[in-house]
């Protein structure tokens, strides 16, 4: 999971449990998401998974700056 790219589908931010969709195992799966760096990440933003807490929680950071 770590290093995979995804897209935010529900706002990720401090105090919020957001949602991202990540392509894994030949399909796309939804995960609960928290910001790795404490910043708010809006829906539609491409993110990278930096930590995975099984079964369905990830910590993400924006993939392309901002």
Give a verbal description of the structure:
The chain has 66 residues and is mostly beta strands. It has a single domain, classed as Nucleic acid-binding proteins (OB fold (Dihydrolipoamide Acetyltransferase, E2P)). 0% of the residues lie in helices and 55% in strands. It has no helices and five strands. It has strands spanning 5-10, 18-24, 27-35, 46-53, 57-62. The protein has a five-stranded mixed beta barrel. The radius of gyration is 10 Å and the shape is globular. The N and C termini lie far apart (23 Å).
Write the layout of secondary structure elements.
Elements lengths: L4 E6 L7 E7 L2 E9 L10 E8 L3 E6 L4
Parallel strand pairs: 3-5
Antiparallel strand pairs: 1-2, 1-4, 2-3, 4-5
Anisotropy-based shape: globular
What share of the residues lie within helices?
Answer: under 10%
Strand segment count: 5
Low-pLDDT segments, ≥5 res: none
| Whole-number tally of structural domains | 1
Major sheet strand order: 1-2-3-5-4
CATH architectural grouping? Beta Barrel
Which percent band covers the strand fraction?
Answer: over 45%
SSE topology string:
EEEEE
Query: What's the story with the biggest beta sheet?
Result: 5 strands, mixed, barrel
Please, what is the CATH homologous superfamily?
Answer: Nucleic acid-binding proteins
Query: Kindly, what is the distance between the CA atoms of the first and last residues, rounded to a whole number of angstroms?
Result: 23 Å
CATH classification, class level: Mainly Beta
- Any idea of the CATH topology? OB fold (Dihydrolipoamide Acetyltransferase, E2P)
Total helical elements: 0
Taking all residues together, what is the mean pLDDT?
95
Radius of gyration: 10 Å
Derived from helix and strand composition plus strand pairing, the structural class reads mainly beta
